[in-house]
Design brief:
With 530 residues, the protein is α+β, with helices and mostly antiparallel strands. The chain is built from 20 helices and eight strands.
């Protein structure tokens, strides 16, 4: 199926969808889901495109796919317009913000007679090792060696284009054995990316001497792509800004509130901050006012052109306290970010450190130097968490200064801003002789220190403020560990570490480097626990 037809059908269902998201959905449908012709669109489900679209957008697109396909033999029809309402919230000083609310679209079942080839493909489980059969029956994880045998057996009957459907079918049948998930059972990405990657790698290995199997048609570049330079200029809010948020721009004022009463509460909080300082965030009245004015805060943060953080601080000073920011993030994403990160660093930090310490011969000099530093003293919780983050950054070949800046242990906000040139993007400023010995931290944004050590009692709370600031203030990730779509990382181009040339970054639902690391970590823990 040519990209022009697929792009047209996405436009029919979602004309206002951001162009970058459209391209990501198209590549995901063709490369991962395996759409090759119009008939394949009948079998696309909302869950297949869940990483890129909201539930309503997914259902709308799937409905159009099925209508277009069912009517392709006759005259194609435009999708019926569903009843929608636009809710507008006028707030002082900025333009109106609007959001559309639509009812759930009815699902249309595909024609049973048009079954895809996957329904006829059967994985020969009877050829698998006994140990793997026992794992499938008990719901346990597959031994790495058994998993590789299964991969080789499956690849004997498929080609590269079929890998996506096969991987999804296997994980759907045996999620406990093959799904990508954390030790706590949380699904990573689509759940079958690591299995898909292994299948494709094996297919490429089998076909390494078959030149014809590696010939691909060049992708046609659109006029817009040809006209775009290497640097994309952001002209407004996009899908990336609201990614991961469930309450990015609320449209309904709190009961009993008006624009005037919200403005009055904002002014009251500014007065309280000037008289009582940031510690007033701990009072019940300020917390209640911050909760009631959430819609007002989001209106300013989401406005375009975007306000500077100094302007935001002038209007909402309590948003620049740890509690104010984390409470706002909880409303924004429904995640207790400080609690979640504290638990994760406490349970996973030691596991990551053990993983690196137990395989010293595999690592480069930078990792080995950091491990020797960890061996020289008994580590507390803060140091274990710091070591885990630094080891991961070195493993993924990220520079320390992409997140951390080191400053003197007795530095103050004024001295740091006066003596250092702080970057525009967020940084964790560690106060100490080195990152491992630091016991106090600051957070800088837009070249200024906004969160001081008195607000953050440990490394986990510091990391929570650092992480939450990206979402609350609509910032974009610059750490290259993240995949391009499905996160707040917007870049489509990147610099190759091998050649130094600017290359196009491949769109993936989860970074292959992360899945590879998680697979190695899981295999290590499996070996050491048995």
């Amino acid at each position: 199926m040519d990209s022009g037809s697929l792009h047209h059908e996405i436009n029919l269902a979602l004309p206002d969808l951001h162009e970058e998201t459209k391209r990501a959905v198209m590549e995901h449908l063709t490369d991962i889901i395996g759409v090759r012709n119009r008939e394949d669109l009948l079998f696309v489900e909302p869950d297949d495109i869940k990483p890129f679209l909201t539930p309503i957008q997914s259902r709308r697109l799937v409905q159009v796919f099925r209508k277009v396909e069912s009517g392709s033999s006759n005259n194609p029809k435009e999708p019926e317009t569903t009843c929608s309402t636009t809710v507008q919230v006028p707030l002082q000083g900025n333009s109106l913000c609007s959001a559309q609310a639509s009812g759930q679209l009815p699902s249309t079942q595909p024609n049973v007679s048009n079954t895809s080839w996957i329904s006829n493909f059967s994985v020969p489980w009877e050829k698998m090792p006994t140990r793997l059969s026992q794992a499938l029956a008990s719901g346990g994880m597959a031994h790495p060696e058994d998993r590789r045998i299964m991969i080789r057996t499956v690849v004997e009957g498929i080609n590269r284009a079929a890998c996506g459907e096969v991987a999804r079918a296997i994980v759907s049948k045996y999620p406990a054995t093959f799904a990508d998930k954390t030790a706590e059972g949380e699904q990573l990405g689509c759940g079958y990316y690591s299995l898909l990657k292994q299948l494709k790698t094996r297919v490429e290995h089998v076909n390494r001497d078959n030149v014809s199997s590696r010939i691909q048609q060049p992708r046609k570049r659109s006029t817009r792509e040809n006209n775009e330079g290497d640097v994309a200029i952001k002209r407004g809010r996009s899908e990336l800004d609201s990614y991961g948020c469930i309450n990015w721009q609320p449209t309904t004022l709190p009961e009993g509130e008006t624009t005037e009463t919200l403005e009055t509460k904002r002014q009251t909080m500014s007065t309280v901050f000037r008289s009582a300082g940031p510690q007033a965030i701990e009072t019940t009245d300020v917390n209640t006012y911050m909760s009631l004015t959430y819609i007002y805060q989001r209106h300013m943060l989401n406005s375009w052109p975007a306000p500077t953080l100094c302007e935001v601080q002038e209007h909402w000073p309590f948003l620049f306290t740890k509690r104010g920011l984390c409470t706002h993030f909880h409303t924004l994403a429904d995640i207790e970010v400080e609690t979640r990160l504290s638990e994760a660093l406490l349970t996973k930090g030691r596991r990551i450190l053990n993983f690196f310490q137990s395989q010293r011969l595999q690592w480069n000099k930078e990792i080995e130097h950091l491990l020797r530093e960890c061996d020289s003293a008994k580590l507390n919780h803060n140091q274990i968490a710091t070591a885990a983050i630094l080891l991961l950054m070195k493993y993924f070949q990220e520079k320390e200064d992409s997140i951390f800046i080191l400053a003197d242990a007795f530095s103050t906000k004024m001295s740091v801003e006066r003596e250092m040139t702080l970057p525009i993007t967020p940084r964790v400023i560690a106060l100490g002789n080195n990152f491992m010995s630091a016991s106090r931290w600051m957070i800088s944004l837009e070249g200024k220190v906004f969160y001081e050590p008195e607000q953050m009692h440990d490394f986990a709370s510091t990391l929570a403020v650092f992480f939450a600031s990206y979402y609350v203030f609509n910032l974009e990730f610059f750490v290259r560990i993240n995949p391009d779509m499905g996160t707040k990382c917007p870049a489509k181009l990147g610099t190759s570490r091998k050649t130094g040339r600017v290359v196009k970054r491949k769109v993936t639902s989860i970074s292959p480097r992360i899945t590879t690391f998680l697979q190695r970590l899981s295999e290590f823990e499996w070996r050491t626990s048995n």
